[in-house]
Amino acid sequence: MSGYLVFALVFWLLAWAFNEWLVQQKPKDRRVARLIGIAVPLLFGATLLVIWECMVHGFSIPSILLPAPSAIWARILSSTPILWADFQQTFLKSVITGYVAGCGLGFLVAILIDRSPFLQKGLLPIGNFVAALPVVGVAPIMVMWFGFDWPSKVAVVVIMTFFPMLVNTVQGLSAASHMERDLMRTYAASWWQTLVKLRLPAAWPFIFNALKINSTLALIGAIVAEFFGTPIVGMGFRISTEVGRSNVDMVWAEIAVAALAGSVFYGLVALSERAVTFWHPSVRGGRA
Hints:
Order of helices and strands: HHHHHHHHHHHH
CATH class of the largest domain: Mainly Alpha
Radius of gyration: 23 Å
CATH architecture of the largest domain: Orthogonal Bundle
Structural class: mainly alpha
């Protein structure tokens, strides 16, 4: 017991000191700075895994309460076909389809609301109300309406992603200043030209903020929706089933896959934001 705990303490101190040294480095080469920015969180994550492993063995924690990372990794390797099938059902079908549909509809409705003050005053309060509805209350209704397969999960994801995109896009479209709009009018620009050349570029940071928020909401919504009815495949189905069987290592394997998929998805959206909003001060400041 003491050996594991001592090793965990020493490893944590060494990793902390090395991370502190890395953070204090100010390399002139942009590629080296980028590598340091990647290495710091990776080392921090590895440290947490090592401490987790040592704590489980050091305190003899039963695997039914908390399996060690090595046991979770072994389960991932031995159950790859099952995890891949669950990933396809939940992420590739439910999350991606619902995310694209919900964000796309939210964006289009925001454009319509921007043209109609009546809709802006009438629909936005309803949107804020619906956005506050708990997914555990919406999911069973969607399952009754659209069945047990992935379309009902898509419906839940659409509901969860539609209103954040709607609210953020409407707010972003009003981000352009009156002076900039007056300048477009002096150029005799139409509403459409003003939208494309001024207001949408100003709204991109708000839109990408909604896209990043929705990248996590979509995955959470799809997994929770699968608790209320699904075919015998899917991350949510697997988690609820394996908990009943006390196969906690399989539950953590599904959680690990979901966390990795959500992180990669969020990262891709963040990279897209940097490419589209390269002119924004926050992005230009990060590249300096």
